[in-house]
Protein 1
Amino acid sequence: MKAKVAVLISGAGTNMAALLYAAKLPNCPYEIVLVASNNSDAEGLKIAATEGVPVFAKSHVGLERAAHDAIMHEAITQSGATYVVLAGYMRILSTEFVAKWGGRMLNIHPSLLPKYKGLHTHQRAIEAKDPVAGTSVHLVTAELDDGPVLGQIEVAILPGDTANTLADRVKMAEYQLYPKTLADYVARDTNPEYLTAQVRKYAFAQPEADEVLSHGMPCFGIIGGKKFAYVSIDHHGDGNIALLVKISGIEEQAMLIDSDAERYHRPAYFGDGWVGIRLDLGDTDWDHIGDWIAKSWRAVAPKKLTKLVDVAAEF
Ligand code: GAR
C-alpha cells in the first residue's frame, strides 16, 4: 500500500512535478492524491491536472489564516492523504493546521538550514561569501523554516553566481532531494525495524520493562514477570505488522474489532485477553499506541509496581 500524499504549492510547482514523476517510478512508496494551492493560477496545478492528479484551489484573500487553513485541511482530508508536502507553498501556517499534521508534514527550503530561514536565501548566502549554498527538507513545526531536518544537499557557489543562477542550480538539487527524502520518510510506516523501535520506546518507558524474542516476535515484559506487549511481524504469513496488548476480555475485543475491523483483530493463539492493533496502516497515532502499552503494562504489573507509579503520578 502506497502512502497517500497531498502537495501544497503556490507557484511554478516544479518541485511538485519532480515528486509526481518520481512517484511513477517502480516501487515508489508514495502516491500523490492531491495537489492544492492558494493560487488558482499556479502553473503547477495545470501540470498535475494534465497528469490526472486531482487538484484543488482556494484563494486566501479575504479569509482569516485559520479559516483558509481549515478549508485546505478539509480538502486534504477528503483526498485520503496522510501526508502533507509543502513545495513552494508561500503561506505561513496557523498553529492549528501545524498541530493537525505534526510529524506528517514536510517542507523544502532553499538553504542549508538552520542558515537563512525566510526569504532571499540565495542572495544572503552570496553576500555572506559562503562557499556553498543548498537545500533542506524538514518536518514542519510551529516555527517558520524550523523543525527536524530530514535531508540536505550542498550546492557549490560559483564565482559570478547571482541569486538567480544559484537558485536554478539549487532547484536541480531539490528535484533529487525531495522525492528521495519523502520516499524514505513514508517508508518508515511499513518498516518493521522502525515500527518495533517505536513500540520499544513506549515499552521501555514502563517500569522494570525488558525485551526478549518469543517465537521470533519482539516481546516486552516485566523483569521476571509477565509479558505486556508483542510485535507481530508477518506472523503466519499474514503480511501485517501489529502490536498485541492486553485488554479486559472478549467484550472489549469484540467492540474494538467492530469499531475498526481493519485495525483491530483477535490475535491467533493469544485468546480473549489480547487484541492485535495494526501498526502498518500509515496513520498510526503513536500517543494512542503509548496509552495502549501503558494500560497493558498496568494489567500485568504487580501491585507494588503500579502503586509506585500511582504515587509518582501524584507529584
Ligand atoms: C523552491 O525552491 C523551494 O525551495 C522554495 O520555493 C521554490 C518553489 O519552486 N521554498 C521556499 O522558499 C519556502 N520557504 P517550485 O514552485 O518551482 O517548486
Protein 2
Amino acid sequence: MSPLFKLSIAAVAALVALGAQAQAFPAPGKTVTLIVPFAAGGPTDKVARDLAEALRKPLGGATVVIDNAAGAGSTIGAAKAFRAAPDGYTLLVTHIGMATTPALYRKLPYNVEEFEYLGLINEVPMVVVSKPGLPANNWTELKTWIGENKGKINLANAGLGAASHLCGLMLQQALATEMTTIAYKGTAPAMTDLMGGQVDIMCDQTTNTTSQIEGKKIKAFAVTTPKRITMPPVYKDLPTLQEVGMKGFDVSIWHGLYAPKGTPAAVVKALNEALQVALKDADFIKKEEALGAVVAHDDRVTPAGHKKFVTAEVAKWGAVIKAAGQYAD
Ligand code: ASP
C-alpha cells in the first residue's frame, strides 16, 4: 500500500470521527436552557420546569435550566429565543401566545413561522376565578355582581397576547362589560395579587389555579372548555361557560417547544426524540394530570405536526383578535 493511500485512509477516519463528534447532541458537559417568557411559578414556568426534569435523561443526563425572560405577553422571551445561537442549547417553551401575538403586535420582533418546531407539550383548560372576598359563590351570583359593579372591576392578565388576556377579552365581550385590565409579567404574580384581594377576577390555566382553589385561597366559577372538567375533582361541579349561555366559548391553551431558526436538522431530530421520550415519562404525566393538563401524544409532537397545528391556531386567533379590533402597539 502506498504511503499516500495509507495517509488518505487515516484522514478519512479522522474526518468521520470528527463528524460523529460534531453530531453528538448534546455534547458532554453542555447545558440546555429553556427560555420561559413568563414569570417564575406560573403555568408556563411550571410545565417548563417539569419538562426540564423529564428531558434530562433522554438528553444523556444534560443539565437543563430555565431562563425566565418575562414581559409583554411572552414577546420578550420569544424574541430572546429567536435571536439565540441556533445550536440546540437555547430553546423556547411557550404557550398559545405563539399564535396570538402575530395578530396583536404589528411590530413583532420575530416571525413565528421561522422558529424550528420541536413538538407540542400539553393542552390546559382555563377557569374563571376571583379574589377570596368577592361576594359571589357561583356563576349566577358572579354575573349579578359584575352587573352591579360595572366600571369598578379589575381583571388581571399576563400581558397582551397571553391566554389570560384573550380569555378575559372574550369574557368581557360575552358579558358586554368593560373591566380595568391589570397586566402582569405572568399569572404567578397576578395570582399573588388575586389571593391578596388587590385584583378582582382572572381567567387562568388550571395548572395555576388548582391548589389555590383546593386551599380556598380563591373562588372558582366556570371552566372555559366545551366539556366539564372531571379531573382534578375540584373542578367537577363547575359549569362550562357554554352551559351558562356563552355560545361557542372554547379556550384551551397549549404549550410547545421551539428552537431558533437554522438549528441543524440532526439537532432538531435529537431534540424531538428527547421530547417524545420526556412526554411519556410517568412522573411528568402524573404531575401534569394532577393540575388538569393533558400531555400531548399525537401527531403534534412531531416538528411538522406541531407547525401545522400552530399555523392553524395563528389563523384562528388572528381572526378573533382582528374582529375584536385589538392591537398591542
Ligand atoms: N398563564 C399565563 C397566561 O395568561 C402565562 C403564564 O404566566 O404562564 O397566558
